[in-house]
């Protein structure tokens, strides 16, 4: 379900193991649909489309957390669906997601639910300055507004159309990290190392993974929190949990994604199994082995902005100059039109030591016109 780049990379991993794939996406020319054996382009709720997908499939997964949960329930009547509709429904709604984190004993940023004007009036002042986030459908920082005062909060909620939101206290972040786990139907669970992430303008820009990229205690807490969050919903599939590490060292959970995640793309070139390989294994009911990282890695997200660094018309970046650097692995998603802020691809850089990888990454960033330094 879903034809974006995550679906495309899943399809590649599945096909590598000899599976046939079918993709359902409303777009007739989606990145995953284009490389799949079958492509159904109907709406996610179209009963005929869902029936065709079920007819073609032995098992069904999703690459897109906003697939309507009832459609997953519909499919689950006749086919194994992972992750299940329940888990996806929780991840689709920040309010339910935060309650789930609390149930698992994992702390998130102080917040208030705003569903009515009364809730708005009752918001405690110590949540300001904060970030107002729509409960549903936000991604890449869309659907979020930073608010410093009550008046700004009221205006932001009114601008949202009065939809259910959460107001989160703006926390002083030291850095951000995420953990990807894969859990099978029979409860076997494996995880990748904690990933250190840098966001720019609410969008992931850089992920770095190497020994001691994160203080050991924080990494261990993040891994055990991610595992208990998966365990707490008997999750089946690949799950990513995003965390904040605060200036005082405290770990706070941000949100989760019921699918492979942009911050796990480095696993494609720096591990013996990628997050997409593990998604295939969980879906097919195959054994899970703990993935092994064999190289230090930096992932650079390639947003459409790079096509416009000289202003004017879109110009393809100088890939050959980037690929001349050692340990560079280019992944482009086959999107025909570059737009600012659009995820067009990513560049993985691998090597024996993080110092070597970092100097290559800095070169690559200079060639591409990415802001340097890469990390803060
Ligand atoms: P994604 O594409 O990851 O799903 P999203 O739109 O769901 O993004 P969040 O992950 O909630 O957005 O927030 C985006 C970024 O904004 C975070 O990675 C972090 O850099 C910053 N941010 C979000 N909430 C807070 C907070 N409470 N305090 C400080 N910074 C925050
Ligand atoms: Mg999100
Ligand atoms: Mg996020």
TrEMBL record:
Keyword annotations of the record: ATP-binding, Ligase, Nucleotide-binding, Purine biosynthesis
Protein name in UniProt: N5-carboxyaminoimidazole ribonucleotide synthase
Boundaries of every ATP-grasp domain copy: 98-284
Keyword Hydrolase set for record: no
EC id: 6.3.4.18
Pathway membership, UniProt: Purine metabolism; IMP biosynthesis via de novo pathway; 5-amino-1-(5-phospho-D-ribosyl)imidazole-4-carboxylate from 5-amino-1-(5-phospho-D-ribosyl)imidazole (N5-CAIR route): step 1/2
Assembly notes: Homodimer.
Originating species: Variovorax ureilyticus
GO molecular function per UniProt: 5-(carboxyamino)imidazole ribonucleotide synthase activity
HAMAP family assigned to the protein according to its UniProt record, in alphabetical order: PurK
InterPro entries cross-referenced by the UniProt entry: ATP-grasp (IPR011761), ATP-grasp_carboxylate-amine (IPR003135), ATP_grasp_subdomain_1 (IPR013815), PreATP-grasp_dom_sf (IPR016185), PurK (IPR005875), PurK_C (IPR040686), PurT/PurK_preATP-grasp (IPR054350), Rudment_hybrid_motif (IPR011054)
UniProt record similarity statement: Belongs to the PurK/PurT family.
Keyword flag NAD: no
A Pfam family it matches: RS_preATP-grasp-like
Positions of transmembrane segments: none
NCBIfam families: PRK06019.1-2 (NF004676), PRK06019.1-3 (NF004677), PRK06019.1-5 (NF004679), purK (TIGR01161)
Catalysed transformations (reactions): 5-amino-1-(5-phospho-beta-D-ribosyl)imidazole + hydrogencarbonate + ATP = 5-carboxyamino-1-(5-phospho-D-ribosyl)imidazole + ADP + phosphate + 2 H(+)
Stated role: Catalyzes the ATP-dependent conversion of 5-aminoimidazole ribonucleotide (AIR) and HCO(3)- to N5-carboxyaminoimidazole ribonucleotide (N5-CAIR).
Residues holding ATP: 94, 133, 138-144, 168-171, 176, 199, 254-255
